[in-house]
Amino acid sequence: MWIRWPADFRYRHFDPRHAALAPKNTEKESQIVDNCIFCKIAAGKIPAKTVYEDDDVIAFHDIHPAAPVHVLIVPREHIPTLADANEKHTALLGRMMVLAPKLAAELGGGYRHTPEGPMGGFKTLVNSGPDGGQEVYHLHLHVMGGPRPWRSER
Ligand code: AMP
Ligand code: ZN
What we know:
Elements: H1 9-13, H2 37-42, E1 50-53, E2 57-61, E3 69-75, H3 90-106, E4 111-114, E5 117-120, E6 122-125, E7 141-145
Antiparallel strand pairs: 1-2, 2-3, 3-7, 4-5, 6-7
Bound molecules: adenosine monophosphate and zinc ion.
């Protein structure tokens, strides 16, 4: 016999870290997930050196830069890891990737085609989970660039 689950079963019974699955609330304040530092930065509750923001994403300097240019592009929505993203996030993730080279260039870490060959450049990185080296469980795209050597390889 089939058990009929309530339509919102997976929202109400999921691990709270998977708040990305919850219905989106338009109130900025209520999107803050407890103890999530990037939710708090996105809501302006904790200061950050912001370099870009719009309705969907915010970008700010990493507090411990690993390269001369090191910014984090962070969706305002609390998506814990890349593994929690789904089809509804496709455009958001695409926008984050398209934003990366623009911010890198604005901050002095851009890539250029030149007559002498490729110049400059940056790295984009998303760490996912413990084995992926993730420390902050709110999805973010690292953008690292500028002249080498960098402080550390990530
Ligand atoms: P990850 O290991 O991919 O989760 O990276 C988390 C990054 O967030 C690290 O590079 C930290 O230096 C950075 N970070 C942590 N707290 C802050 C903060 N308050 N402001 C800016 N960057 C931060
Ligand atoms: Zn968050």
